[in-house]
Amino acid sequence: ATVSLVLNNKPGVSEKTRRKVFDYIEEVTGEPEKQKEEKDKQNQELENKNIIKVLYIDNHLRFLKNFELDVCPDSLTIFEQEARRMGCIISVTYASSAKKEDVERVVREANEENVAGVILYATEMQPDQFPPFRAIRKPMVIYDNDLGNEYHCVTFGGVEGIRDCVDYLVSRGCRNIKYMANTQDIFNFQQRRAGFRAGLRKNGLPLEKESIYQLGETTSEVCEATLKYLDTHELPDAFIMENYQISIGVMRALRQKKISVPEDISLLGVDEIPDYLTGDILLTTLRMEHLERAHVAMLFLEQEMKGAISCKFKSFSTCKIIPGQTVK
After folding, report:
1. Which of 7, 115, 136, 280 is least buried, going by the fewest C-beta atoms within 10 A?
2. Helices H, strands E: what count in the chain?
3. SS3 at position 60
């Protein structure tokens, strides 16, 4: 995969690795002089450009790599487009915040002379894992998390979005609403659960021990846990489903139990997914603006690189409910 990225001049590979690939190809194939000259020209052009590092902090939670289903928007494409507009190139690095040597390496790379700025893609990062990254001395924007007041942070407006979901369901006659959750505990999920609790309070609905019910991480785990839930609990008026694994797994379990949607229960999912993954019924969803957030993150970074903003901003994107066929 790395060689393919290099040969097709795609982002996602550090310049050091890119040069190693070209050097190895030359060694084993006896690269013709003309091709070598062209390679040297390309390398020179790359070396003359500033780099924007995109650091993916991968804690093996499968939100950044090894997705269960390929339904995630390609934010990296937006980063690349915006970098090109700014006269820069993108270099992507994955690192585990749990590995000291990984952190030290990416901090060192981020502080190299030709790095103009950094996007820290922090979906899977916990606040106590962030301090070592403060050693990055280049302009930096935190993406998909809120890690303090020293940096611009660009993320979802999960609290307001889920609170609006509760309002929406209540306006359609739902009073007994349950929140079906992932077992992971990342920032975005914490925000959504806070929004659910706020929505219940706003509408005078009780928050009970199992109002927020954790099911699993994968669609199969969620389906099995939902089947057990349905065997042991009364059916509520509505489920709010935390992410696409929850939506797919819950809907699969309801079909197995022959529970009709929305006649028997209303469903509202977070994030749009194709209806072929939900049994050919169009799921009512809370749309999360992924690609627009990537644009905003790069705009903030550009201004940081210019030194044009003296204070820091937290940008929480608005979310929109998209009506489907799963709410009465």
Report:
1. 280
2. 10, 12
3. coil
Structure tokens at 74: 């390609």
Residue 31's CB is within 10 A of a number of other CB atoms, namely 16
**Coil, strand, or helix at residue 94?**
strand
Are 119 and 155 in contact, with CB atoms under 8 Å apart?
A: no
Six-digit token string for 186: 């990342």
| Residue matched to tokens 């020293």 | 150
Cα–Cα dist 207/195, whole Å? 12
- Both tokens of 179, joined, read 């929140």
| 133-136 contacts at long range (C-beta below 8 A, 24 or more positions apart) | 133/55, 133/97, 133/103, 133/107, 135/107, 135/111, 136/107, 136/110, 136/111
Q: What is the pTM of this model?
A: 0.82
pLDDT digits (tens, 9 = 90+) for 232-289: 999 999 999 999 999 999 999 999 999 999 999 999 999 888 777 777 799 999 998 8
